[in-house]
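Translate structure to sequence.
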């Protein structure tokens, strides 16, 4: 399912160096995310999504771009059933399961979400407890929870942070703790909302390297268009709640009139040859030992 990567997250994170796009000769991968004519308005009647339809296949890494207020975060929250019902319109499915009761617990087992604002995600007294929260919800054994927490913190370069108080961390550290909490659940689908915001350049490069190795289907919302280009072969462009374009990342991000029309800019690396557009990174890792 992972284009040659192991199903085991710890091992895959340490050893798989290729992107997780599916192999070309293995037949069409299954559709993991289905969004069909999704419309949504917040309780104050502000319409945030209008008739949005797309699908994401297993192993794809898809970028979600658009100006402030386009509806990117709102869309991601729908894929995890976090905005509640009723939707104003449409269908949202993960692996064919409607993102609604009675499937919500199973959907949330399969989908991991990194929130845009880490303060929306962190609530425990210590980093260790926070990262352990998801694995505990999965009903894993105490030993496996401890192992997952340790592996996940190592993956985000926060070894030994277990006793720290989340609210006393820097913004970039908080974002890494949130990422560790998501990775510790080893979800099948990863939803990343501005994953590189507040990272220093090294952390950003290492995130990109790690993300390439993660054996999951990924949807990444960001204004960091160089990161989107580095990770995604396909992008969805949203504006005012509508899906404007869905297609090849280079074609869409390289279309300057389209980008300018929707409050964005053609990435620097597509404007001219840029020898240091993205430094190679070895990644945060490897994880401290293979899982059983
Ligand atoms: N809780 C809320 N109540 C009312 N309106 C909201 C709420 N949250 C978001 N909105 C509105 O919904 C629209 C979409 O917001 P959303 O946060 O999804 O945009 P975004 O594309 O993620 O933007 P950004 O790039 O700034 O993160 C905006 O017009 C926003 O003002
Ligand atoms: Mg947002």
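Result:
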């Amino acid at each position: 399912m992972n284009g040659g990567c192991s199903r085991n997250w710890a091992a895959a994170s340490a050893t798989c160096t290729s992107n997780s796009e599916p192999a070309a000769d293995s037949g069409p991968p299954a559709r993991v995310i289905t969004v069909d004519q999704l419309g949504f308005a917040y309780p104050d009647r502000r319409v945030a999504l209008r008739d949005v339809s797309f699908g994401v296949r297993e192993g794809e890494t898809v970028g979600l771009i658009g100006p402030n207020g386009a509806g990117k975060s709102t869309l991601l929250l729908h894929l995890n059933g976090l905005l509640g019902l009723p939707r104003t319109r449409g269908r949202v499915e993960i692996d064919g399961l409607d993102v609604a009761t009675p499937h919500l617990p199973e959907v949330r087992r399969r989908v991991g979400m990194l929130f845009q604002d880490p303060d929306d995600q962190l609530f425990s007294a210590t980093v260790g407890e926070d990262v352990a929260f998801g694995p505990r919800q999965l009903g894993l054994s105490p030993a496996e929870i401890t192992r997952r927490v340790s592996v996940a913190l190592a993956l985000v370069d926060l070894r030994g942070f277990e006793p720290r108080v989340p609210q006393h961390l820097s913004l970039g550290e908080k974002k890494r703790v949130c990422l560790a909490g998501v990775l510790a659940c080893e979800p099948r689908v990863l939803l990343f909302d501005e994953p590189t915001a507040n990272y220093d350049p090294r952390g950003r490069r290492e995130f990109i390297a790690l993300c390439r190795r993660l054996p999951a289907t990924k949807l990444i919302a960001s204004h960091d268009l160089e990161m989107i280009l580095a990770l995604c072969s396909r992008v969805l462009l949203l504006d005012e709640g509508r899906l404007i374009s869905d297609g090849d990342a280079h074609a869409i991000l390289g279309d300057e009139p389209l980008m300018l029309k929707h409050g964005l800019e053609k990435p620097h690396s597509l404007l001219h040859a840029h020898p240091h557009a993205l430094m190679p990174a070895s990644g945060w890792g490897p994880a401290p030992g293979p899982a059983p």
